[in-house]
Amino acid sequence: MIISCALSRSMARLANEMHAITRLDFGDDRSGGLSIISEVQHIKSSFNQLKQGIYAMTKYIPKPVVAAILEQSLSASHLLGMQPSYLVVMFIDLKGFTTISEMLPKDKTVMLLNEWLAAFTQCIHANHGTVDKYIGDCIMALFGAPEPLEHPEHWACKTALEFRAVLDGLNLSLHERDPTLPQISVRVGVHAGNLLIGNIGCPERVNFTVCGSTANAAARLEQLGKTYGVSPLVSGELYRVVRDAFLCVWVDTVVLRGYTMQKTQVYHLVATREAATPEQNEVAGTFHAVRSAIKRLQWDKAQALLDCVDVAAPHFAPYRATVSALATHVVSREAPLIVGTSLCSSYTTLSAKASRNRL
Q1: How many CB atoms within 10 Å of residue 353?
Q2: Which of 4, 92, 214, 293 could make a disulfide contact with 193, Cβ separation 3.0–4.6 Å?
Q3: 8 pLDDT exceeds 80?
Q4: pTM score of the predicted model
Q5: Beta-carbon contacts of residue 347 (< 8 Å; ≥ 6 apart)
Q6: Least reliable range by pLDDT among 50-54, 165-169, 303-307
């Protein structure tokens, strides 16, 4: 009778913990201490190893995906497949990581990389984003998948702006720990659109990810930060959704690398509308007015607006490339307005009619 009761209690506790694992609840050990029955103890030891393995899996795969696998008891062959979905893709890249890795010893390089990945990942998760993968010194994040999210565009923009405070805190912490460590900075690109999301691969190896031009465009926007010297950069598609809540400065109209004719409006995400300074609003308003004048072929008005721009002023200085290219088109009185033709070889010159349609 005593053995029967002990067995019953041990199995009940073990069953409760198994049920908790299906919810990815890795809390306190619910199966109790050592069992007086050796067979139960062997089962418990094996289960603890399984628990540790599943917990480790959640570090490699987004938790909602792991939960779906456990809940639906899917085999690898059934996992394969992708579905169309609308979501926001974000790329965050550590500036100058190659140079940093050459400067620092290997142990410090790894420490620095892990510290920034941890800090930015925490910020992404706090804003309901999901880290899809780490690509060397780059983070690819999703908003709106694998779990649905209302207003993913706003959450993505909020995250991108919060990165500034996260980066300041991280640099301060690293400097206090080791003054020889370099100050780090990042580039961010964000785009919203339709793509495929799900699992791709083969029965022996499956990878959860997204596929489509939306992800490619987000990566290209991040890379454009090198050309324009400002970040985060967001697409016109994203801007149209968030413009009432966030102040964005138009930077350029480009044909992104890898594309042939599709044009993308590029904006610098500056601040929330409530937090924007008068100087930031002045920059955004000036560029909008110049674009409107060029669209209407009002060259004298566009020139007068540009004459008022002081590129030495702190709030205009980051946009020297945009101001210079705008001025070139106004002086020549040509309206291609693929601004930045001299900056990126992938840009093309269109007719004035096409330009007016684009603006």
Answers
A1: 9
A2: 214
A3: no
A4: 0.78
A5: 254, 255, 338, 340, 341
A6: 50-54
